[in-house]
């Protein structure tokens, strides 16, 4: 008997609060930036609204004419301050492995500065097929299309918008600043509690696709 296999699948993943719990590292980096510049930054508040680009958060604490300078300073401090402090999210390694073990490709598409994203993944031993940084919300669609991703996994309504813009199936995880209701209202096709649920979901999704 010949068993038909479903075609290879490319799955995109967001990074912050999807694959990594970036709160400790980002908190440490904002704290260090405040000390370096003598500017008040509420680091506890910053980590409750992760997702959008760095410049948008810095605009809450610095005047417009200093944002570019502060982006560069933050990024220069980030590797030493934030990488070691940042753990993987539960199920993150297994989620990437599940995609690759099924013959698929896993690509990370994130708003984070691409060199920092690669440092995080390397430090945590996660090896996706590609990493694309510096893209937020609808901008992510370009990279998802380029890599042929038909599924995108993320924790933020911006990730849902990116998936929808790319025509990809939107898998949301309620591990970031947006709860399940917000993610569904934004158009997520499915919401998982966290990435530990992804391998079983992926197996069911592939099985359904092979029958279609």
Descriptive notes:
- This protein starts with 9 loop residues before the first strand and ends with a helix.
- The longest helix is centred in the middle third of the chain and has 16 residues, at 67-82.
- By secondary structure, the protein is an alpha/beta fold.
- The protein contains ten helices and six strands.
- Helix 1 (23-37) packs across helix 4 (67-82) and helix 7 packs across helix 8 (157-166).
List keywords for this structure.
46% helix; 212 residues; elongated; alpha/beta
Q: How large is the radius of gyration? A: 18 Å
Number of helices: 10
Please provide the count of β strands: 6
Q: Would you identify the regions where 5 or more consecutive residues have pLDDT less than 50?
A: 1-5
Mean pLDDT: 96
Proportion of residues in β-strands: 5-15%
Strand line-up of the largest beta sheet: 3-2-1-4-5-6
Gap between N and C termini, in Å?
Answer: 20 Å
Categorize the overall geometry: elongated
Q: Strand-and-helix sequence, N→C?
A: EHHHHHEHEHEHEHEH
Percentage of residues assigned to helices: 40-55%
Class by helix and strand content?
Answer: alpha/beta
| Main sheet specs | 6 strands, parallel
């Amino acid at each position: 008997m010949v068993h038909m296999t479903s075609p290879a699948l490319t799955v995109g993943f967001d990074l912050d609060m999807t694959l990594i719990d970036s709160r400790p590292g980002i908190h440490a980096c904002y704290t260090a930036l405040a000390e370096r510049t003598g500017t008040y930054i509420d680091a506890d508040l910053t980590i409750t609204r992760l997702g959008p680009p760095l410049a948008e958060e810095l605009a809450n604490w610095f005047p417009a004419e200093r944002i570019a300078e502060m982006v560069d300073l933050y990024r220069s401090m980030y590797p030493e301050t934030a990488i070691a402090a940042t753990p993987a999210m539960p199920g993150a390694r297994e989620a990437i492995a599940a995609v690759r073990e099924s013959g698929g490709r896993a690509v990370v598409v994130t708003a984070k500065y691409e060199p920092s994203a690669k440092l995080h993944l390397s430090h945590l031993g996660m090896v996706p097929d590609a990493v694309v940084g510096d893209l937020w919300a609808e901008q992510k669609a370009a990279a998802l299309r380029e890599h042929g991703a038909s599924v995108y996994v993320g924790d933020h309504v911006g990730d849902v918008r990116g998936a929808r813009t790319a025509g990809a199936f939107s898998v949301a995880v309620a591990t970031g600043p947006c709860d399940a209701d917000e993610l569904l209202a934004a158009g997520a096709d499915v919401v998982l509690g966290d990435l530990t649920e992804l391998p079983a979901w992926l197996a069911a999704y592939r099985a359904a696709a092979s029958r279609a």
